[in-house]
From TrEMBL:
GO terms for biological process: tRNA wobble uridine modification. This is tRNA 2-selenouridine synthase. Keywords: Selenium. Residues 14-136 form the Rhodanese domain. Gene3D superfamilies: Rhodanese-like domain. It comes from the Bacteria. It comes from Halanaerobium kushneri. One of its GO terms (molecular function) is tRNA 2-selenouridine synthase activity.
Amino acid sequence: MRKERLITYQESMNLNNSIYIDARTKSEYEEATIPGAVNIELLNQEERKIIGTIYKQQSPKKAKLKGVELVSPKIPDLIAAVNQLAQEYDNLIIFCSRGGLRSKSLAEFSDLAGIEVYRLEGGYKHYRHYILDRLENYKFQSEIVVLHGNTGVGKTYILKEMEKMGANIIDLEGIANHRGSAFGSIGLKEPYNQKYFESLLWEELEQKDQPGKYIFVEAESRRVGHSVIPDFFHEKMKKGEDILIKASTKKRVENIYLEYIKDIESDQQKFRERVLESLRAIKKYIIKKAGKKTYRKLIELTEKSSFKELTRVLLEEYYDPMYRHSQNKINNYQAIIKAENIKKAARKIIQLYS
């Protein structure tokens, strides 16, 4: 057997055409992993519990023997999965929780089959420490420009258009997998947790933070979905330059409707139930801001599937008054941009900072 190839995460970043293979359970992988990693599960969650029980109640040796018994029938499929990736990538980096038996076993099976792989030293735990250390000691090189505006003006759409035009943007809602409101998870998979959010944020900064450049972001509160924006980033946002985006109510309703149209058309009843669920979750806030009459009206509009009218009422009677105060606190907007046309708005901001 060839000498095992151990590699640190920092070293692995210098490899070309590479992919990370997460040998942990599917549930561990889904909780948080290295962005872009694929999951080749050596043991499932139930099998891990069985081995853990034997390890504690009997002996480490018996636990290992049980592990061999459980994994042996899977070896052909495991090797086939690794080999398939080897056809596409020049460098395969296998990891597990701490760089222990799971990644070592999968690496040895691969080696026996003639597939060269790396094993990530310290596993996901070392990777996580690496990310935390980089974020804790992060020093910005770029300046931040923050896009403000009422719900639905199209800030995310503008950022995406700016990115097409060559601007550096960080879509905080995108890397949180949440749109940032009580209705923000509708039509999306589960919002990312803090670990994965921080990994994605660091990758964005590593790629886009450059001296003398600007990074454009959307105004956000500290929490986006299940994730919290790190202090250093949020403080930089507060010190950044501010641009106010404006659009008519009609345009804003259209923007929001287009964002959810696929979910409405694919399963209107399910969408209606999710909206009702979200309305009930913020019932006390709606009543406090807009009154019981408005809340009842919103429920009625949802039950009738009058989604455009529902959106208009939510904007005018709930969201706009709520955000007016925070927007009024900023008295030095670098520009006020009308966004009836998303591409034109994006182009204007690009020109301001070209």
